[in-house]
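Researcher: I'm preparing a figure for a lab meeting and need a structural model of a single chain. I don't have an experimental structure, so a prediction will have to do for now. The sequence is pasted below. Please return the structure as C-alpha cells so I can convert it later.
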Amino acid sequence: MYCDAHIHLVDLDGREPGFASNAPHFSWRGAAVSHDPTEFLQSEALRAKMPPTIAGFGIHPQNPDMGNADFLISLCDGKKIQFIGEAGFDFFGDGPLLSRNPEAIRRQTEAFLFQVRLAVRARLPLVIHLRKATDVFMAHGRELRGVPSVILHCWPGRLEEATMILKKGINAYFSFGTPLLRDSKHAIESLTGLPRSRILSETDAPWQPPHGFAWTKLEHIVDVVDKMARVLGTEPEALEPLLEKNFSDAYLLAR
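Model: Understood. Here is the structure written out cell by cell.
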C-alpha cells in the first residue's frame, strides 16, 4: 500500500475537478489537511468519495488566525479529526506575517503553542509545517515531548537538525516528498541518515509539483516512493510495507 502523509483535497479539486471519484489504481491511503471551517467541510465531502483517508485541521503559520481555535477544539472534542495540523512556523517571505519580525513570531508562536497543548490534551498527532524556522521550533522541545506524535511535513532541514529533534525526546517522524524528485541535498541527507522507522512518504498534492507538471497529483506518490527506495538502496516493494507501518505509527492508527 502507498501512504501519502500530506495532501490538500480542496486545492487538488480546484486543479483537477472530479479527481476524488477516480481513486488511484493502486492500494492507497492518505492524510488530508484543512485550515478553515469552509475548507474542512469541503474536504470532508471529497474525502467521502475516496479510499480510506484520515482528516486533520490546523491553524497554519502563514495565517495564524486564532479565530479558528474554537472550531478546532470542537473537532477534537467531537472526535471529528485524527490529527491536528498543519501547525508550525514559516518565515520564508517578505510579508508582515512571513518575515522574522517580533509580531510574526508572537502570532505564530501563539497559534503553535495552542495547538501543541491541544494535541497533548486530545492525545492526537501534530503535523508540522516548517520553513526557515527550525531553531524556533526546537526551542519548544519541552512542550513537544508531551505530544503523542509529531509529523514534520516535507522535512526541510538537515540530518543534524532531525537528529537533534529526536534527541530532545520528541516522538518525531520526518516526511519526504517531491523535493526528493528534484534531488534536494538536505532531503537525501536526512532520508539516508535517519532511522527507517522515522520516515514517511508524501506528495503535498497539489503543491510542490515535480519538474514538467503544473501541479502534484496523487499518483506522484509512486514516484516519491520509487525515489526513496533508490536513495536507500532497496526495492519499492520492500519499502512500501515499512512506510505503511510508519504511517500507522505516526498517525496513531495502530493503537
